[in-house]
Design brief:
ammonium channel activity; Ammonium transporter fold; Beta-Lactamase; transmembrane; ammonia transport; alpha/beta; 8-stranded mixed barrel; 23 strands; 5 domains; single chain; about 15% strand; 39 helices; c-di-GMP; EC 3.1.4.52
């Protein structure tokens, strides 16, 4: 039963090769012939299988006449056993494979009917006879062997019987019908195909089907099948690899056709011996097959034999090599026919020669006769038109496009665009062609118009003169005005009739310049002083008493050198707007457009010059680097317009405290630099800084609100010889950040220690990164309780850093540093991952889990990675979103409120709770609460700390609690450390508490003791 099943499966595999050959050949030829090739592929399979059923199987496997051909088993029917029927189907697929090979070799030039006639010859007169010589006894061991089989000839799955036979017929057809048009003409290279990906798919289908081709030739699912398939796969891979490698090293690139043909050649080469060789020998056979197909294709080209798909090298040449490989690499014990190495080699060579002579001469003779009665070669017109249309009337978008283009060429009619088939490559070409034709028509029309305009140019000279935007004035050799166009009338404010005949120099040249211009005129404007001929001369003219303007004058001689009276044309352009534009550009280049202070570019130039001067004079230059504290918050809350007004007010106050020698520049954003160059001492710099701080502390009214402008100032001065501008700026910048660290709204002088601290800070960032990877962080958990200590309602995850050298480092030291870089996102993700991992661990222990709150940075909240990361981790640990709570500080909400709302909505979609931590300490958050999808408000510890002793804190807590209740939000009091605090908060309506009074932060094993049923609030 296994034999019966295996033959059917193998038949299906081999049938798959037909689809592979169809895809391979359809993709490797030009699109105008693809339908014809596909039709030939399916038609030859239909004819070959029909003839094989009629009498081919009987000739191949029937009762033998002297080992030459069979005489029984015709019209194969259902009277046979299931195994015999399966064997028939398997052999029918082989016949179809042999018949289809010729199609690729003669593609694009052989008629459809002629090709079918060749298929009949191969299927009826060639393939069954050769098959009987080699495989006669395969059907039944009781029947006599074919004459080659009796000599010991081995061709396991048909390197010769199938592939060389098809290759010999293809070679004869190539010789009979000749090459394609232009194939061997110099300078013409036919395209490699229309769809190489389809061809690659075809090779993969063939490769897949070949497993049945070789594996099925055992006729039973035996232990030898796996090795046969392995050898087949190895040989194919090495065939493609070697062919591609030779192509690359010889030609400098890899042509896809050699990869495809090398793979097929490797399959063909191993087919005869795959059952008797080792895997190592398969590599050699496949590799040599790659060499054979590469150089075989070159040989065919040298012989000027046009094989469109290299069928002869891939199937005939590789088939011959594969057949000889049986003797060269076959293991004698597996061949087991009693022949020696040389005896086997002689028999294999004899079989190759005899089969080749028979196949070639029978095929050549039959095709020669057929060609006399029905031409096998398509006509030149049919070949140029494409066999899709010529033989099947199957038009394509490309054919329609070419037909339309030919019509336009023949009739010189470009008024109608060619058809554009949408959503296709041909349609894109047609659209681009139509665009080109439109552009050509437009260009022709423009040229015609230009010619017309040239012919009418004399008539329009006066109009051009009158419409010129520049003043055009013609004077004679005495300087009298001869022509005065309308632009000159507008510029000088007088009519032509008022100035005609009068002296241009006396009317429009400034009195101080008149003598010089008279001298220029007398010299024909060729002297080195005054105005010069054929140049752009910058000059100043007047258009009335005491009203002069900048101008540019170009002078040309208006008549020929032979004229007695010289005339000169003055092209005058009013440069007033141009000069103003230059001044404006200069202002923009060196000034800040908002505040009108100097900009960074000017400051750096001035600083470099001042430092050079100070070095020579042994003086100093001082810098005050200013940064407005909390400017971003003001800008975000009150709007950018208010922010701009604030910056302008800062500029005015800085100017008010400066003197004439100071340089004030806006460095960028809310940063300003104040440079002092006169009498620079530490005391004067300190006094100037205090003056600035005092000026900035005065209230400023913005949007009906009075605000102060606290400012951090960093001070540096050139007390070191040779210090450059960049270094001095850097020192002042570092000092400014030091002032921010010292509480803002103060000034700090730069010291060397500051550099060390900054360096240490960057080193701290590196240590944080390393601690994340080395596992130096751990979590502790602080419970949140409902009314009483024993009612655990939730947990807050708190990160701790146990440094191997420095010991325990509190979060207050490393979190602010991390928040200034992307490290805070890594820390947040680590905390989320560890919290969910701990949840899963407690759940796996059978404990009752509660929600865990994790603190989230503002940078992470608005990042694109937050929601995907949390979603992935919830799914990974199998934790529902309701067991996770995200805590954010209300200050985060001021950065990008809309982005915060969008991210919170995505978190709520995961059923995650969101709480606002440290509520009441930020700016204007109350206006956002109704827009935010919040669940919990946490009262900041600063209000809880004295809520039982200070009325103000009590009122604040009460207000926050009532606000949360009105918004239907849960309220949590954090930092509860005493019983009076707890009682006061309870009296105000708070029910959820967190703090040392109830529980301190604990490790996970301690929390596990609390997560029992009696301690957890449901």
């Amino acid at each position: 039963m296994a034999e019966f099943y295996w033959l059917l499966v193998a038949s299906a595999f081999v049938f798959m090769m037909q689809a592979g050959f169809l895809c391979l050949e359809s993709g490797r030829i030009r699109s105008k012939n693809s339908i014809n090739v596909a039709a030939k592929n399916i038609s030859d399979f239909i004819i070959s299988t029909t003839l094989f059923w009629f009498f081919g199987f009987g000739i191949m496997f029937g009762d033998s006449i002297a080992g030459v051909f069979g005489t029984s088993e015709f019209l194969f029917d259902g009277q046979h056993t299931p195994w015999e029927i399966s064997f028939f189907l398997f052999q029918m697929m082989f016949c179809g494979t042999a018949a289809t090979l010729t199609s690729g070799a003669v593609a694009e030039r052989m008629t459809f009917i002629g090709y079918l006639a060749i298929t009949v010859v191969l299927s009826a007169l060639i393939y069954p006879i050769v098959g009987h010589w080699v495989w006669s006894s395969v059907y039944s061991s009781e029947r006599p062997q074919g004459w080659l089989e009796a000599l010991g000839f081995v061709d396991f799955a048909g390197s010769t019987v199938v592939h060389s036979v098809g290759g010999w017929v293809a070679l004869a057809a190539i010789i009979i019908i000749g090459p394609r048009l232009g194939r061997f003409e110099q300078g013409i290279r036919l395209p490699p195909g229309n769809n190489l990906p389809l061809s690659a798919l075809g090779v993969l289908l063939i490769w897949f089907g070949w497993f049945g081709f070789n594996g099925g030739s055992t006729l039973a699912l035996t232990d030898a099948v796996p090795l046969i398939i392995l050898n087949t796969f190895i040989s194919a891979a090495w065939g493609g690899l070697v062919a591609a490698a030779i192509n690359y090293f010889r030609d400098g690139y890899v042509e896809v056709g050699f990869v495809l043909n090398g793979t097929i050649a490797g399959l063909v080469g191993i087919t005869a011996s795959c059952h008797v060789v080792s895997s190592g020998a398969s590599i050699i056979i496949g590799g040599v097959s790659g060499v054979v197909v590469y150089y075989g294709s070159l040989l065919m080209e040298r012989w000027r034999l046009d094989d469109a798909l290299d069928v002869v090298p891939a199937h005939l040449f590789a088939g011959i090599w594969g057949t000889l490989s049986v003797a060269l690499f076959g293991q004698t014990d597996k061949i087991n026919n009693g022949l020696s190495f040389f005896g086997q080699l002689w028999v294999q060579a004899l079989g190759v020669a005899v089969i080749g002579l028979y196949c070639f001469f029978v095929a050549y003779a039959c095709m020669w006769l057929l060609n006399h009665f029905m031409p096998l070669r398509a006509s030149k017109e049919q070949e140029e038109q494409g066999l899709n249309v010529a033989e099947h009337r199957a038009t394509t978008e490309l054919f329609d496009l070419l037909t339309s283009m030919q019509y336009q060429q023949n009739n010189a009619d470009f008024s109608t665009p060619v058809p554009e088939e949408p959503f296709t490559e041909v349609g894109q070409i047609a659209r681009k062609y139509n665009q080109v034709i439109d552009r050509v028509s437009s260009e022709i029309a423009q040229r015609d118009d230009a010619l017309t305009r040239f012919q009418e140019s004399e008539m329009r000279k006066s109009a051009i003169l009158n419409s010129s935007m520049d003043c055009i004035v013609t004077i004679n050799r005495f300087g009298s005005v001869m022509e005065f166009n309308p632009a000159a009338e507008r510029t000088f404010g007088c009519l032509k009739k008022q100035v005609e005949g009068k002296s241009f120099i006396g009317l429009f040249i400034l009195e101080d310049d008149r003598q010089k211009i008279f001298e220029s005129l007398n010299s024909g404007f060729s002297s080195s002083s005054g105005l010069i001929l054929n140049r752009r001369n910058p000059f100043r003219l007047q258009r009335g008493q005491n009203h002069h303007f900048p101008a540019e004058i170009a002078i040309t001689k208006a008549n020929s050198e032979s004229s007695i009276e010289s005339e000169y044309t003055l092209h005058i352009r009013d440069m007033t707007r141009h000069v103003k534009l230059q001044e404006r550009l200069k202002f923009l280049a060196y000034s800040d457009p908002l505040t009108s202070l100097y900009n960074r570019t000017y400051l750096m130039d001035a600083l470099v010059s001042s430092l050079l001067f100070a070095t020579k004079q042994k003086t100093a230059v001082g810098l005050l680097f200013l940064d407005l504290d909390n400017f971003k918050i003001i800008n975000d809350t009150l709007g950018h317009k208010a922010g701009d007004e604030l910056l302008c007010e800062v500029a005015r106050r800085l100017i008010a405290v400066s003197d004439q020698h100071d340089v004030i520049a806006r460095w960028g954003g809310d940063e300003f630099v104040f440079m002092m160059t006169e009498e620079v001492t530490e005391s004067r710099l300190s006094q100037r800084a205090q003056d600035i701080l005092s000026a900035m502390r005065l209230p400023v009214k913005l949007n009906e609100q009075y605000l102060t402008i606290p400012t951090s100032i960093g001070i540096s001065f050139s007390d070191q010889l040779g210090i450059d501008a960049d270094k001095l700026i850097q020192q002042a910048d570092i000092a400014m950040y030091w002032a921010k660290e010292k509480g803002r709204d103060n000034a700090q002088f730069f010291t060397a220690e500051m550099v060390n601290v900054i360096t240490k800070k960057f080193g701290f960032e590196k240590e944080i990164n390393e601690a994340l990877s080395l596992g130096h962080f751990h979590l502790v958990f602080q419970p949140k309780v409902f009314m009483e200590k024993g009612n655990i309602l939730g947990l807050e995850a708190l990160i701790r850093w146990n440094h191997p050298i420095k010991g325990l480092i509190p979060p207050s030291e490393f979190i602010p540093i991390a928040e200034e870089s992307s490290l805070i996102i890594k820390i947040d993700e680590w905390v989320i991952n560890q919290a969910l991992k701990q949840q899963k661990s407690w759940r796996d222990q059978g404990l009752t889990i509660v929600s865990i709150a994790v603190n989230l940075s503002g940078r992470h909240l608005v990042s694109d990675s937050l929601v995907p990361y949390i979603s992935q981790k919830l799914e990974y640990y199998g934790i529902e979103g309701c067991w996770l709570e995200i805590e954010i500080t209300e200050g985060v909400l001021l950065k990008d409120i809309q982005r915060c709302i969008d991210v919170m909505a995505e978190l709520k979609a995961l059923d995650i709770k969101i709480s606002v931590d440290d509520f009441g300490t930020g700016y204007s958050s109350l206006s956002y609460l109704k827009r935010l999808p919040l669940d919990i408000l946490k009262i900041d510890q600063s209000f809880v700390e004295e809520c039982d002793s200070h009325v103000e804190d009590t009122k604040i807590c009460e207000t926050i609690i009532h606000l949360a209740q009105s918004l239907e939000l849960a309220i949590v009091a954090e930092g509860v450390e005493t019983a009076p605090q707890a009682e006061m908060l309870k009296s105000l309506g708070c029910e959820i508490f967190q703090g040392y009074y109830y529980h301190k932060p604990m490790k996970s094993n301690e929390i596990a003791k609390l997560l029992i049923k009696d301690y957890v609030v449901a």
